Automatic annotation (TrEMBL):
<keyword id="KW-0732">Signal</keyword>
<feature type="signal peptide">
    <location>
        <begin position="1"/>
        <end position="27"/>
    </location>
</feature>
<protein>
    <submittedName>
        <fullName>Uncharacterized protein</fullName>
    </submittedName>
</protein>
Length: 211
């Protein structure tokens, strides 16, 4: 596990969104888990493009276009991303996501000054809609979208796991006090059935909270 301090942004509840657009195989899981100096109670979260010193309203997009010849053939298709965030936001500029065109960086941290200054951890979760939808009302179950995780050069525990959206709120990770966790998410579309032609949209929201 690798430990070194990096800077921070104050909040006790943070949320970030990711848009999904559709027109898995589980990889080896890695993450960075970094020790931070104790400080006043705060949480920090970023998904895709972000900044560590103020709020950022950017909503990044992941998308896939299904070729006609592959419609519903059950072969999962990789989704691309419009994120450009390749390097970590935490001071050392480490290339956590070397290919952001196919990855989305997710990072979260929780700080407190001592054991009496708030809970021992914060909770990272993601909330997704039941379906991706078109303007005409056609739907694709959100469970058709999954993600794998990676963090080049790290052998730290799988602190933000791979998974599949379930149309509800899923707890992804527990962030201990004075710790920052970070890795890359690579999304894919299961392509398990033929769908009506159209552009299917949805939005998922990641939340980091400390009561």
């Amino acid at each position: 596990m690798n430990h070194f301090p990096r800077p921070h942004t104050p909040r006790r509840l943070a949320a970030a969104c990711l848009a999904l657009l559709c027109g898995a195989h589980m990889a080896a899981a890695q993450a960075w888990s970094l020790t931070l100096a104790a400080a006043s109670r705060r949480v920090f979260l970023h998904v895709g493009n972000g900044t560590y010193d103020n709020n950022n309203g950017t909503i990044n997009l992941v998308q896939v276009t299904v070729p006609t010849a592959q419609l519903g053939n059950g072969t999962a298709l990789a989704m691309t991303s419009n994120s450009t965030q390749a390097t970590s936001l935490y001071g050392d500029n480490y290339a956590t996501c070397p290919t952001p065109a196919s990855q989305v960086m997710v990072g979260a941290s929780y700080r407190r000054s001592n054991a009496f200054n708030g809970p021992a951890s914060a909770t990272l979760s993601v909330t997704s809609p039941a379906s991706l939808t078109t303007t005409g009302g056609d739907t694709i179950p959100i469970s058709q979208v999954s993600w794998t995780v990676s963090a080049p050069g790290s052998n730290a525990p799988n602190v933000i796991p791979a998974g599949t959206f379930n149309g509800g709120t899923q707890t992804l990770a527990t962030v201990p006090a004075n710790r920052y966790i970070e890795n890359c998410h690579t999304f894919s579309y299961a392509n398990s059935a033929v769908r009506a032609a159209g552009t299917y949209n949805g939005r998922v929201t990641y939340t980091l909270s400390s009561p």
